[in-house]
Amino acid sequence: MDTPLRHQNLKKLKTLFLSTLYISAFTFGGGFVIVGFMRRKFVHDLHWIDEEEMLDFAALAQSCPGAVAVNAAILIGWKICGFAGMLTAVLGTILPPMIILSVISLFYSAFASSPLISAVLHGMEAGVAATVLDVACDLGMATVKTKSSLSVFIMAGAFVLNFVFHVSVIYIILAAAVIGTVRLLIIRRFHREVSR
Known about the structure:
This protein is an all-alpha fold and 196 residues long. It has helices at 3-25, 31-45, 51-63, 68-106, 108-113, 115-146, 149-163, 169-195.
C-alpha cells in the first residue's frame, strides 16, 4: 500500500542527488554561488521550496560554521525528504569537489607550473566575480520583493557597514540576529496584547 509513496520518495531523492551533484560539479565561486543555483533549481524549476524559505536557508547557511554549500544542502535536503534527503543532498554536494581536489592534488606540481592552467584560472576568476555579483543581486532583489522594509534596511546597512566602514561580517551577522530576535519578540508581544 505504501509502494507508490516509497517510489515517489525514491524518485525525489534521485532528483535531489542528481540536482545537487550537477550544481556542485559545474559551479565555481564557492558556496554563495551554489546557493544561488540551488535557489533557481529548487524554487523556480522544481517548486519544492518557496522563495522566502530559500532566503531563510541562505541566511542560515552563511551564518553557521562550515561550508556554505554543505550547510545549504543540509537545510534543503531536510526540508525536501527529511534525514534521507539531507544525506542525499550533502553527498551530491561534496562528491564533485572531493573528486576534483583529489585529482588536482595528485598532479599539483604539473598544474602549478603550467602557464595554460594559470591562464585558465585567471579567466575563471573574472567569471566567478561576475557570477557572485549576479547571485548577490538576485538574492538582494528577492529580499526586497518578499521581506519587510526592516529587512531591506538591514541589508542596505550591512552593505554600507562592510563595504564603506570595513566592519567585520561577524559583527554584522550578530547585530542582524539581535535585530531579528527583538523584532520577533515585539511582534509576539503585540499579537498577545491584541488577542486579549
